[in-house]
Amino acid sequence: KNQVEQSPQSLIILEGKNCTLQCNYTVSPFSNLRWYKQDTGRGPVSLTIMTFSENTKSNGRYTATLDADTKQSSLHITASQLSDSASYICVVSAGTGTASKLTFGTGTRLQVTL
Amino acid sequence: NAGVMQNPRHLVRRRGQEARLRCSPMKGHSHVYWYRQLPEEGLKFMVYLQKENIIDESGMPKERFSAEFPKEGPSILRIQQVVRGDSAAYFCASSRLNTGELFFGEGSRLTVL
User: Fold this and answer.
1) pLDDT for the residue B96
2) Chain B environment of A107 (Cβ under 8 Å)
3) Which residues on A lie below 8 Å from B57 (Cβ)?
4) What is the Cα–Cα distance from A104 to B44, expressed in whole angstroms?
5) pLDDT tens digits for A38-97?
6) What pLDDT is recorded for position A96?
7) In 3D, which of B90, B32, B39, B40 has the Cα closest to residue B61?
């Protein structure tokens, strides 16, 4: 059964600090891995999409890494801001990468405080 | 350039009533997906449609749920005879290609009393 597990479940950090969110998956055959940011009461917004051959991908202060051998990914947030408070969802695509074959993690809820 | 539009944003229904959720994809997108999100759970795939065709409905409950994406107009997710367990946020997403980036709407939150 395809699964995506994220840790920690929730995290509180001070504004300006860095943090790293983890994602482990058992999706096969792997196609791509996506990170989304979901603000409370809003729809998810894409941060990065990484294929098998990509190890690192950045989007502003967000940097995602992928280790396809260990089936792990991380999302690093640099110099956090209050607006980073949200749930961060790891999503893995299986097979041919069609969007209908995505497995969603339950997310890490990040709170950035003053 | 409008994003994915969902309405209503909030819907309250009594048990046994029908709920209709609408989704207009982004301009130029012909692939539409519906997901359900329960509190504290990840999004669960329900159905994938293209214009006038259901491509994959493997995530749809066998009864009471149906979806369509007509030639003209928005995609509609229809839930008949709602029960309390149907209370959830229903998200629609669209993409230009089936393997492309997904763009999500803001969701429709259904509450069944």
Assistant:
1) 87
2) 42
3) none
4) 7
5) 999 899 999 999 988 899 999 999 999 999 999 999 999 999 999 999 999 999 988 776
6) 72
7) B90
Report how far residue B57's alpha carbon sits from residue A82's, in angstroms, rounded to the nearest whole number: 39
CA distance A70 to A66: 9
Q: Which tokens in the block code for residue A77?
A: 């947030």
A98 interfaces chain B, CB cutoff of 8 Å: yes
Q: Is the pLDDT of residue B2 over 90?
A: no
Q: Which of A38, A25, A22 is nearest to A76 (CA)?
A: A22
Half-sphere exposure of A54 (CA within 13 A, CB side): 17
By the CB < 8 Å criterion, does A60 face chain B?
no
Report the distance separating Cα A42 and Cα A25, nearest Å: 25
- pLDDT tens profile B99-112: 678 899 999 999 99
| Token pair belonging to A39 | 């603000």
CB A49 within 8 A of CB A61: no
User: Does the pLDDT of residue A102 top 90, yes or no?
Assistant: no
- Which residues of chain B lie closer than 8 angstroms to A7, CB-CB? none
Cβ neighbourhood burial of A44 (10 Å; 0-12, 13-18, 19+): buried
pLDDT of residue A90: 96
Nearest to A43 among B99, B100, B107 (CB): B107
For the record, the structure tokens of B37 come out as 């999100």
Residues of B in contact with A31 (CB under 8 A): 99
Answer whether A2 touches B (CB < 8 Å): no
